[in-house]
Amino acid sequence: MSNITFPVMEPKMIPINKVVANDYNPNKVAPPEFDLLVTSIKEDGMTQPIVTYYDQENDIYIVIDGFHRYKACKEVFKLKKVPVVTINKSLSNRMASTVRHNRARGTHQIKSMADLVLSLSQDGWSDESICKHLGMSIEEVIKLKQATGLREAFASHTFSKSWDDFEKKYYSGEKGK
Fold it and tell me: What is the pTM for the complete model shown?
């Protein structure tokens, strides 16, 4: 595994007003857990930098992982600067990174996860690629696509022969046979 990079070894202190939340994070933290995070930062300090993508065009750092640490630093501690590390990836790969970081720690909101899976699918990601990059089973991906209620979510999905047989039987009027 010599291809592993170590962005964690290159943290930078960035003005907090240059750091912004992404608009796709499906992770939510309940108030008691947020309070625990605040306590953790109070007691232990910032033990992990915020993982970001640097948007050079707008001169901002977009949060990939660490939104709640960022929120605590901004709203509770009123810090002027925060530690960040940056990774340079496409939007789809940043979405996948966010999910991997979050899933390694906690839970997600179903609707937000469904929207994210649909977005990746519409971006051309196969079900298999979504499974691989987000650490999901094919059943999870299909259930999340179903949760969107959108027919196009399944446009590229290959159904098994049993589904084709069921569909032919049901729609040909043979369902009682």
Answer: 0.64
